[in-house]
Amino acid sequence: MTAKVSESDPDLDLDLAVELVNTVYALAAPPDRLTNTGAYQHILREARQDALADELTPADLPALRELRDSIAPLFAATDLTSASTLLNPLLSDAALVPQLATTDDGAHWVLSTGLHGLAALRARLLGALAAHLVRHGTARLGVCQAAPCTCAFVDRSRARTRRYCCDQCNDRAAATAYRRRRT
Ligand SMILES: [Zn+2]
Known about the structure:
It is built from 7 helices and 4 strands, in the order H-H-H-H-H-E-E-H-E-E-H.
């Protein structure tokens, strides 16, 4: 059975967390794209999460920014103790009620049952981050090493050697290293 994109999917939700954090990109002008909810609604629609995008309203902007700023440090956490210290208060504040959802493939946790809009988004992103940390620890979550960029990424490379958020940052870092070698 293929997963329906409209349903909560931990990999997709983790990517949505990354995309939320990366609405701040140091090299963009201006660096912060999240000056209205439309910027993130666009990201949700690109990920075929139209229902969730439709439920966000302009009044959600402060909470959306707060969610972004609260999950961003998780990508810099280097051990599970510090990651848990960051994530547990967020899970606690969200007062999530896990429900077991069953499919033909088995069962999985759903944290957003009965929630809508920002509350559903918060539940899905926090749930995806928690599930990822349980499964993989902090090794695959990272922050771009090409200063001044501080974008987040999930390292899905086989060798777990990813250091940059995107090809542009990779190229920029390579060019900087090349210049350094020549001087
Ligand atoms: Zn970067």
